Structures are given as structure tokens and as C-alpha cells.
Amino acid sequence: MHPALARLIEESGTIAVLTGAGISTESGIPDFRSPGGIWSRYRIIEYGEFMASETARLEDWRRRFDMEDQLGQVRPNRGHLAIARLLAEGRCPAVITQNIDGLHQESGVPDDKVVEIHGNARHALCTRCGLRHEIAECRAMLEKTGRPPACRACGGIVKSAVVMFGQMMPEAAFARAVRLAEGCDLFIAVGTSLVVHPAASLPIHALRNHTRLAIVNREPTEFDELAELVLNGEIGELLG
Q1: What is the 3-state secondary structure (H, E, C) of the chain?
Q2: Tens digit of pLDDT per residue, the chain (240 long)?
Q3: What CATH number was assigned to the domain covering residues 1-28+76-118+168-240?
Q4: Which DSSP symbol is given to 86?
Q5: At 141, is the secondary structure helix, strand, or coil?
Q6: 80 belongs to the catalytic site
Q7: Phi/psi zone of residue 72: left (φ > 0), alpha (ψ -120 to 50 degrees), beta?
Q8: Which candidate in 2, 80, 104, 118 is catalytic?
Q9: What is the residue extent of each domain of the chain?
Q10: Angstrom distance (rounded) from CA 219 to CA 193
Q11: Domain spanning 30-73+119-162: CATH 3.30.1600.10
């Protein structure tokens, strides 16, 4: 770990960590929003259209399967493992993440200590009763019937657990993220540009309580001038 970051951690009691896409690219996760990425090849389907149109649901599910295939057999990298160690030491109550790849859980962080404010692409939920469905199960349903998957319990519409455009953020998860930001004395933002809201507001919640802010990212962010420490470079190297 970079000595300056290690020193800040050592001097701190309670730590909050927010991670973004930058921590996962070193695991081989594609940048879905870049030119040529999945989302540049598909039109945006908003939540309302997904719920109203079977055709839209079919289109969305096919791209979800495309994403799952591209995720492939990716594994956590040094950055994920460093954060897992921080939690295991009891210095950090939970990790807040904008990512939907489930790599924090795969690095050894218990599911109840990962606060996913944008959801998770590795499973799906019934929009009526909330029952969890696995992506492979949903794929099998679609291949068998030619129709979007329906809940095996109540027959409701099933969608990926990712938060879609036009869909409400998970209120409980974000409220928990705010509590973590307000209750720490060191807030570390890792691999996030801090421009996507409401996640970008979390450092503000921390700073209002006179929390120290550290930013670890490949590129500069708009919050750099407010941070006590800014580290630009390869995230796995800086954290590992």
C-alpha cells in the first residue's frame, strides 16, 4: 500500500470506502460505457419501458446475457483484496460500491458488508414479490419459452438486480451509505470519478463532519482540492 495512504489509515479509527468502476477494470471487467462497449451498441431502455413492454424486456435480457458472458471468469484484483483486508481488520464497517460486478463479495467481504447503491448484475429479482432468481435460471427460461423470464413463485416480471435508468435508487442501501460516510473519520474514494449522483454526494456528507478525505483514482476528480491525500495511478498497486 502507498505509504501516505497507509499512514492515514493507521491514524484513523473508523473508515468508510466508496468504490467505482476503476477498481474493477484491473480484473478485466470491460468498460461498458466506452466506445465499442455494450452500452454504446444498445439504446437505453428505461425502467418504465421495461415494465410496460415485453419486447423491451426481451431486448434488455439479451444484453444482460451479453454482459454476463463478457464478465466471464473475472476475479478480484489487489485492490479488492486490500479492501477485504481492511474490513477483516475491523477498521471499516462496510464497503460502499457503485459497481454491479459482485467482486467485493468474491474477494471475501460478506454480502451484508457490501452496500451496493447501483445494484448487482449477478442475479435478478421479481419486481412483484422480490424473490431472487439466478441469471442462468433466467436465461434457461427465455431459451425455453422465447419470452422474458417470469417469477417462479408468483409469475411477476423478473429483472436484473441492477438499478435501471428511471428506477428509484435502493433507498435503504443509500441511507446506509450516508450513515457510513457521516460516521467515519477517514473516507476513501477508490476508482470513482465522483461525478455520478447520488454517489458523488457521499464525500460531501463525510466532509461536513470534518472527516479526512483520500482519493485513489487514475484520473483527477473535482473533489481533489478538498482531499487531504490524492493518489493517481494503478489502483491495485496503490492499495495492494
Answers
A1: CCHHHHHHHHHCCCEEEEECHHHCHHHCCCCCCCCCCHHHHCCCCCHHHHHHCHHHHHHHHHHHHHHHHHHCCCCCCHHHHHHHHHHHCCCCCCEEECCCCCHHHHCCCCHHHEEECCEEEEEEEECCCCCEEEHHHHHHHHHHHCCCCECCCCCCEEEEEECCCCCCCCHHHHHHHHHHHHCCCEEEEECCCCCCCCHHHHHHHHHHCCCEEEEEECCCCCCHHHCCEEEECCHHHHHC
A2: 999 999 999 999 999 999 999 999 899 886 555 555 555 667 889 999 999 999 999 999 998 898 787 766 789 999 999 999 999 999 899 999 999 999 999 999 999 999 999 999 989 999 999 999 999 999 999 999 999 999 999 999 999 999 999 999 899 999 999 999 999 999 999 999 999 889 999 999 999 999 999 999 999 999 999 999 999 999 999 998
A3: 3.40.50.1220
A4: H
A5: helix
A6: no
A7: left
A8: 118
A9: 1-28+76-118+168-240, 30-73+119-162
A10: 8
A11: yes
